[in-house]
Design goal:
By secondary structure, the protein is α+β, with helices and mostly antiparallel strands. It folds into 3 domains: 277 residues, Glycosyltransferase (Alpha/alpha barrel); 151 residues, Galactose-binding domain-like (Jelly Rolls, Sandwich); 91 residues, Galactose-binding domain-like (Jelly Rolls), CATH 2.60.120.260. It contains 12 helices and 21 strands. A hairpin with a 2-residue loop joins strand 16 and strand 17.
Length: 547
């Protein structure tokens, strides 16, 4: 039986951390060759899964351009992206559930910049914005620009009255107001611009690079790499590993497609079993493209003589700065598959999975911080997810799961331990402090958090537990038996605890037994659910779905 990924999939980073603890290994940084010249890059080359693997530079090339940056409010771009991803997730995936009340970006905001006394005030300033703007110099209004105009020349001479403060009020309709000034003392690269939503007061504005494509940063799409199938076996095209992207091909008539993480799923013609919307659109004479990016490995095309089958695979620009190689080839292969699993889920945010949700959940972020730090070293994708989920906490628990509030605080701590980012900590600290106070207010005299009956608490994925009974979890930790947890991402914590308490051999055995079994089944990314008691097609039926 060929492999699936289950929900395409959770992130398993402690593999690298645990393995390095007690096995002869090499770790290294990138070199001047594709697979690197460090011992670890060279020795692990045979295990590469990622078709865009590169240790020297980012692949694909980022859509960024030099020059002064665009300005947004703190976490406003991220919140807008988050809103758009929720819409697209509902459009492409069946049976998705994404609870919570999330921040909607402000449409009317203000920006201001104050010049120091020694800087000469310019006669004019060129302002670019996607919003209608009103410009003030000190107490005097000097310009008003319509939403339809993206570039404005503002005459400041008429407003010279000794003031050194430029204020721009911006109002957009369906997107976050952004601001760019390329040159002069008010240029947006000065680091002195502030932003105000009219509620929380003035805060440092967030800066994002201009793009080569010319679109605003919040409108950037995921970069694409064109990939061909690795092989064709009968009616199935096999792309060799799990991907997310647009399927394209040429075919006469009105074809349709079925995709799958496993051969079983890709051969299943029962429409109600399909987890993704598989609609095709005609993009040229006899040329067809999936309406949505699809998560899959195997592709079946139902049509006459399909040709030029491709996947416009989407990848966040990534460089394999870290590497791992070990005398045990199984551990090297596990590390490489874990790295690719993580890389595939770097999709605007750090996602829970590329197939079912395509959205961020906070329970992944503590683990993801470690794997990002040890493998790719790019904190931006984690900052996006952690900060945007924290903006939800004003109206509900994180992801509407009450124990995720604590996981959000833990994730903030893990991020700082791995990346040491004081600027991000300053931005997030008011919300971190407020969350700690909120959690403390619901704790009993023993320091255990109590919540109303019926609240959603979460142990990923396990049956037979009363999840509102903290005492039951405590009994498990003291050695009592319980129903096994069927989630590799949760088992990571068990393995990490074993390693940290001197039980390295036991931790390594469990690691190889569970993740090794997934590789033996043909997986190229690791699954969200795995039950070692299941065999045959049953191992693919996570969430009670057909294989």
């Amino acid at each position: 039986m060929n492999p699936p990924i289950k929900a395409a999939c959770k992130i398993i980073p402690v593999i690298a951390l645990v393995v390095c603890s007690f096995h002869s290994c090499n770790t290294g940084q990138p070199s001047k060759t594709q697979t690197g010249s460090s011992p670890a890059h060279i020795r692990s080359a045979y295990a590469i899964i990622d078709p865009t693997y590169n240790a020297e530079h980012l692949v694909p090339e980022p859509d960024v351009s030099p020059g002064a940056p665009w300005l947004y409010g703190p976490v406003e771009l991220e919140s807008w992206k988050h809103q758009q991803m929720q819409v697209s997730s509902k459009a492409v995936a069946h049976n998705g559930n994404y609870p919570g009340v999330y921040h909607v970006p402000f449409r009317q905001v203000s920006y201001r910049c104050r010049l120091s006394p020694e800087v000469e005030l310019p006669d004019r300033v060129e302002i670019r914005s996607n919003a209608a703007i009103i410009v003030w110099l000190g107490e005097k209004e000097v310009f008003s620009g319509d939403l339809s105009e993206r570039s404005h020349t503002v005459d400041l001479a008429a407003g010279i009255n000794g003031s050194r403060v430029l204020l721009v009020k911006a109002s957009a309709e369906a997107e976050p107001p952004a601001l760019l000034i390329e040159n002069g003392p008010f240029f947006t690269a000065s680091g002195t611009w502030e932003w105000n939503d009219g509620i929380t007061g003035w805060q440092a504005a967030a800066a994002f690079p201009q793009t080569q494509s010319g679109v605003l940063p919040h409108q950037m799409e995921m970069p694409e790499v064109i990939l061909k199938p690795e092989k064709r076996e009968g009616i199935l095209y096999d792309f060799g590993r799990e991907l997310i992207g647009y399927v394209t091909f040429h075919c006469d008539g009105s074809p349709s497609v079925i995709v799958g993480e496993s051969v079983t799923e890709a051969l299943d013609t029962i429409v109600s079993h399909h987890e993704q919307i598989l609609t095709l659109t005609m993009t040229g004479q006899g040329e067809w493209t999936s309406k949505h990016p699809l998560a899959f490995r195997y592709l079946q095309i139902l049509g006459k003589d399909p040709a030029e089958v491709r996947c416009r695979a989407q990848f966040w620009p990534t460089q394999y700065k870290g590497a791992f190689a070990c005398s045990d080839s199984l551990l090297t292969r596990i590390w490489m598959a874990a790295a690719y699993t993580h890389r595939l889920n770097k999709y605007e945010f750090m996602l829970d999975g590329i197939k079912r949700d395509r959205l961020p959940w906070i329970d992944n972020m503590k683990i993801s911080s470690a794997v990002e730090a040890y493998t790719f070293g790019d904190p931006e994708i984690l900052k996006r997810a952690i900060s945007v989920l924290g903006r939800e906490s004003d109206k509900s628990s994180i992801n509407n799961i009450i124990d995720y509030d604590a996981l959000w605080v833990i994730s903030q701590d893990a991020f700082q331990l791995n990346f040491d980012d004081p600027g991000f900590l300053r931005q997030e600290w008011p919300r971190i402090y407020a969350m700690i106070e909120r959690i403390a207010a619901t704790c009993d005299a023993n320091g255990l958090r109590r919540w109303p009956q019926g609240s959603w608490t979460f142990i990923d994925w396990v049956s037979g537990w009363d999840k509102n009974m903290v005492e039951q979890v405590m009994r498990l930790l003291t050695g009592d038996s319980a129903e096994p947890v069927n989630s590799p991402s949760m088992i990571c914590y068990e393995i990490q605890t074993l390693a940290e308490t001197g039980k390295a051999a036991e931790a390594l055995l469990k690691l190889k037994k569970i993740w090794g079994a997934m590789l033996d089944a043909g997986a190229t990314t690791f699954w969200e659910g795995y039950d070692e008691r299941e065999t045959g097609d049953d191992i693919y039926r996570f969430y009670d779905r057909p294989g």
